[in-house]
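Replying to the earlier thread about multi-chain prediction with a worked example.

Input:
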Amino acid sequence: MKNNDKEFEMNPSNLFDYKDTPLSPSLAENVSNIETVLGKSSDLLLNPFFIGNIACNLICFEGMISTQTITNLILAPLTNIDPEKYTAADKLFSHIHDNMLMAIDRGMPEKYGELIHRLMSGFAVLLIDGCPKAFAFGVQGFETRGISEPSTEGNIRGSHEGFVETVRTNMSLVRRRIKSPLLRFELFPVTEVSKVDVIIAYMTDRVPMKLVKKIRKKLEELPLESILGSGYVEPFMENPKPALFSGVSVTERPDVFCAKVLEGRIGILIEGTPFAIVCPALFIENFQTLDDYNFRPFYAFLIRWIRYLSFFLAVFLPAVYVAVVTFHPELFNHALLMTLASAEQTAPLPIAVEAFIVLLFYEIIREAGVRLPKSVGGAVSIVGGLIIGDAAVSAGIISNPLLLACAISVTASFVIPSLNQQITVLRFIAVAAGSISGLYGISLLAAAVLVNICALENHGAPVMSPLSPFTPKAMRDVLTRIGFPRMAKGRASVEKLHGVDMDRQ
Amino acid sequence: MEETKRYIGWGQFLLLLFMCRVFTLMTFVPFARDGEGLSLRLTAAAVSTAVQAALLIPVVLLGRSATSVILDKNNICGTVAAALYLLFFLFYTANSLMHFQRFLSARFFPYADSLLWIAVILAVCVYCACLGTEALGRSAVLLFWIFIIALAAMVFSSAGDADSANLYFEPLDARGLFSAVLDDLSRNGEICAAAFLAGRVRDKLRCGVYGFLTAKLVLAETVMLLIAAVLGDFAVLSDYPFLALGTFGGERFIQRSDSLYLIVWTITAALNAALFLHIAAELFGEVFPKMRFRTAVSALLVFGILFAVTTARGSLEELYSLICSGWAVIILAGIIPLIALIISGKIGRRKSPSEKIERGESLQ
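Result:
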């Protein structure tokens, strides 16, 4: 280990030498090496002290540990150790190991790599002079966001708890809902630089272990330096072929996460993001919410079909309007045709250009609303409403029927937020296709999208299941929402769907 | 894009071929020919289906090994067969697209550049074909349901106008029946695809084949009866009676519903052409194993055929008519598989367990 700090700082390759280097029995050498690796960072706290004649050092990162916890659980017991009884380092080590609990989460790192990973995970590390091992105590006390309602997945009658950025808290939210000994969590660090903790959750009786190992291997081999959001991991869990839709789902809700894990999927929790990943996912699940299972079946049936309709309205309504007005006016009856003709006649721009302008303005306002500080967020709706809703129509730049069609489309897209990206892109493409070749172009686009979705698979599960490959029994929860007495008769599982072979990649 | 071997269910196989037949029905119902009355058409469809059932017996007997036996790489006959199938599917794809383009020009877009619009649909078909048999099979399932909804809407909106007095069954003529059967066979090129797709069916190939033949016969007979009952003599005059049925039907809040049906027909046309393009690309791999971008090459050849036929005419048209004739279907769907079956020695001997597994049969 190099002692020349300046040379070490300038040579990053030295940072990777420590991982498998074992700890030294010498406390001074250990502390020196740790300081060298961590570059004497300002948040590194070194607390040397003695227990009798034995030199010790308690190391932690400032802001990562709970001062009260470390005082009560570690400092107090350590200072109460009788120094007369434990004069040798190995006896002291054994005493602490065998007779003093000190923390629920404990480890004994023997290499610098693990020791530093523990430090950075909020552990306090105790080094004893003469011992080539250390103690790591889980006394995390960093500030975390409290459990609150998920911001992206609203509901009426379901739980109002959402995942948070702390992966261990998320793990507890899941465990509280599935109190089964068959539920397993596997926690391990991933990525080369930031060593982010991820957890994979699964039911041992519902998921093939081969799949679990496959996903674990993919996570461990992620070629990323860091994971700052679930979106970093999603592409690696999906089918490598480019596809419009995703074979994995993302959720902020522990109840949704648990429901999917119980259906035989694998959930992935990632430290630093409240969005969990579940795979494999089906396309039809984008239209299902937890509220469906809290409402009466007849109402849930109606709402679900409204969502299906909303998807087509969101993607195709502006395009169909443009196509029909331009190429197929015979579709309208006379009264409607006259109304639309008089509205479009006054607009100076071609209808396709109008549609693009309206949709583009909507995207600008939506993006501004997301990025704008909350204190001035109200200005977005005022500006948006005035500019598009009133001024543009009054000025005759945009026609009312087109504005209505776009507004319905945009509102319909709010019904399925998980498909917002695809809907937005497809909407623009559909308008272009419709303006160039009418319903013919839109149909070709629909054909391409249809085959694209049907080709998509995730870990052996076709994304279009149970529609295609067709599974009659599973269609009960697609075409309708069957009642719980009937649903309870058979356990829903992804593996039971036709065409699913989770051993296949 | 290289596709690893994937299997489809017999239901997907059935619906894939069925939707190809639906496309043909949409754009090919030949009521416009002189002397071909309702009884001739109905009988020809039934006889043609019986002939197809007989032609496909060798394919059913070969089971999942049909493709590998017919296109045996170790045998020069296999390579020749692959080349014949390839030629057929390229011309058949071109034929399908040409008829679809004529249908579009005649009824929806009279001033559109025909070759440009074919190029557009070909581009989409290339993309769909590259995604593989499984994707096409699954798409066929969904498209089937969309078609059923459209057909139901068409039937319900026009059934009220059906008049049994329009159903006149004229006496049959043997010669006329024979040519009508051949004519019908020429529009059933998808049964040649059965010989190729048989190798991709996971199990119950027999159910898939005969289910398909039954379903398409029922569809054809029902649609022809409905067209005759609703449209009467107008069906004889109309180039596209099925379209006319759709136009005649919808009148309420939609002035004419044929434009809506255009959506279903276009998607069906794309799926139909994509399937044959995909098969052609696979056959290119049999004949020219080292060739890359086979699907794109197939599409370019199809476009070239269309361009040549629409501009050059003459002897190329004769070749075109020969390749897309009923005799070609008989040879490719029935005779070649029969020869392959005989050569492979699979007739008259007990099936080994592995052969039973190949065909999805029980080992009991």
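Confidence is low (pLDDT under 50) at residues 1-10 of chain A.

Feel free to reuse this layout for your own posts.
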